[in-house]
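Hi W.,

Here's what went into the run:
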Amino acid sequence: VKTIAVLTGGGDAPGLNAVIRAVVRTALGHGLKVWGIKNGFGGMVENQFIELTDSSVAGILPRGGTMLGTTNRDNPFNYPQTEGGQVVYKNMSAQALDNLRRADIEALVVIGGDGSLRIASEFYQLGLPVVAVPKTIDNDIPGTERTFGFDTAVTVATDALDRLHTTAESHHRVMVLEVMGRYAGWIALHAGLAGGADCILIPEIPFKLDSVIAKIKERQQRGRQFSLIVIAEGAYREGGEMSVSFIVEGSHEKIRLGGAGEKLAREIEKLTGVESRCTVLGHVQRGGSPTAFDRVLSTRYGVAAVECIFDGAFGNMVALQKNRIIRVPITEIAGQANNVTLDNELLKAGRAIGICFGD
Ligand code: F6P
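Here's what came out:
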């Protein structure tokens, strides 16, 4: 292999630039030529390639976002085209592959989450030599114990909890922090444990409002006039509906956030009489500089992805297990999820100290 390409797909996550840098440096070190594909898989269809050199990746390690651009609206197998003023969706995968061929690109590194892994898997099955790197702040990709970006999101959410703690205590209020995680409660669980939350609510375990209220009242009886609740955006009441809904717009899923945290704060105030406020952390969790852990993990992933290419180990995602980088076949994990299970050790720890439900 003499020429490779790298792209970043789906929502951004802190550490994307660190992966790109590691891919480029490792490949250049072995005399390879590296193309960056701009704006995710869409750039493959649109022929948006830029050559990446040592100087293109200089200084990007601590930077959030992605120097290559990214988008959620970019599936080449169902790609938007304007015809006669109308948007129609077409399979443009052949054109995308042709663009790669004309640039002599022999292997592709896809840095992405579940959607990008599905597309990568389809291209791999069409014969494209692909290697994937698991990215999402949600940490919900199977086959790996960690996705990069997650540690940064947890750190930001923990800092938010520390800040909410002092204002909650001063005002004798209930503070609800809504964090990201539409299907998976990993951010809520980790940040809730790290930030000393009194109650952690995750999508995997529908909660009983009674239990939340009982927790707040029990604290009041012990002289604690404030409480901190962490709720994942996808968490919902038992028998109720998820606050996050999905609409399909053209070829892609769009998320509609339903204000899980705000709804909960209103109900708590009504049922306890305690003033309650909600903070929605949102994309603050995705932006900005990656933590040291994410920078190191991203660098390891980028190096390992290029090593897969040297070994001809295509169709794999690099992954972290027991602090070692391993390879997992993309076809085995595409379309699968990694959720918090009832036997999860952290969840059990949360239950042991009385801040998690689900027994
Ligand atoms: O998957 C990452 C994530 O940040 C989720 O936690 C969140 O629900 C979603 O993406 C938000 O997507 P968007 O940036 O498209 O609003």
